[in-house]
């Protein structure tokens, strides 16, 4: 178990000339096996994490995403050793580290609260993790300067945190995690206090450092757009469980269930109640509010429990007004919200409320009735009872997911 002790890794990495290049041949994987975490509360027991299984590969950037209270931060704290699982195991490279204390797991954590020491210079803040390991001043300053250069704060080392901008302080905090040469990086919503422009800038920096160092990174966020931008794979969590773990294309185009489909994608998915007329692995026909939707099947997941289904489709696949060739509904355009070069249209009718993402210059007028068309090549069919995915239609998976999730 000595390999997980921070100072041991520090001694190894200090012998390397190119300290921050991803040339370490040591395999680095993290495995969570049936992790459960309970907390005692006044009314009994609260289950924060319930049977979580994850396999995080070498050099992989994975994100835990989900609504507040879904268990993502507790899962991260279990990996870090800050919380002890009620049951289950955590393995690093196949070795059980569940009983190993946090300070001996060789991990670097970064939180929403930057927590730089205000009375220390930036170089002392960056070097502090090495100081508490007993590394000599000369060596830790050398390491800190290298890390500062990686994070582009090398000209600020003599300043105090109060002299830096929010983005510069976050870069310094990143340098402090880099200097530790960790087994893996753990990040808990580190950008949530920054403005939108700085968030975009720091996302790029986090990815750049991740690719350079090649260590696993586990990143927690409630922001699905951030998850889609950063991740190799995404774990979508809800009520302490993982609803789906897959690439961004998988969770967007092939959501396991209605929860994932609603959570991933911006604007959120539309749904209509429907009834199966015919559905197999090649074609499908569904009746919804008196209209017929016919489509070819892209992927058939499972047999539905009954003929009652929910038909899902994203606002990007809805056309209206003069762009409609084969209208499905006539709905009232009740509201238009500008979003960059597009507009989000809210449509109302007996079928309920639908949303469409349209060009901002399309000539439509609020309060008028407009014909509405749904792209039948981009449908999701969910079981009406279980809400699990039954099938997807057409060639939805050929589109670029980045064009569909970062619109707001």
Characterization of this structure:
The protein is of the alpha+beta class and 408 residues long. It folds into 2 domains: 2-253, P-loop containing nucleotide triphosphate hydrolases (Rossmann fold, 3-Layer(aba) Sandwich); 267-399, Beta Barrel (OB fold (Dihydrolipoamide Acetyltransferase, E2P)). Helix content is 23%, strand content 35%. It is built from 10 helices and 21 strands. The chain has helices at 6-13, 72-80, 122-131, 137-150, 166-178, 196-213, 224-230, 248-253, 258-263, 402-405; strands spanning 30-41, 44-56, 61-65, 87-92, 95-96, 107-111, 184-188, 217-221, 233-238, 241-246, 270-279, 283-288, 291-300, 308-313, 318-320, 329-339, 342-349, 352-359, 369-374, 380-383, 389-393. The strands form 4 sheets. A 6-stranded mixed sheet has the order 6-7-8-3-9-10, with helices on both faces. A 6-stranded antiparallel barrel has the order 11-12-13-21-20-14. A 5-stranded antiparallel sheet has the order 15-19-16-17-18, with no helix packed on it. Strand 12 and strand 13 (291-300) form a beta hairpin. Helix 3 crosses helix 4 (137-150) and helix 3 runs parallel beside helix 5 (166-178). The longest helix is centred in the middle third of the chain and has 18 residues, at 196-213. The two termini are 46 Å apart. Residues 1-24 have low confidence and may be disordered.
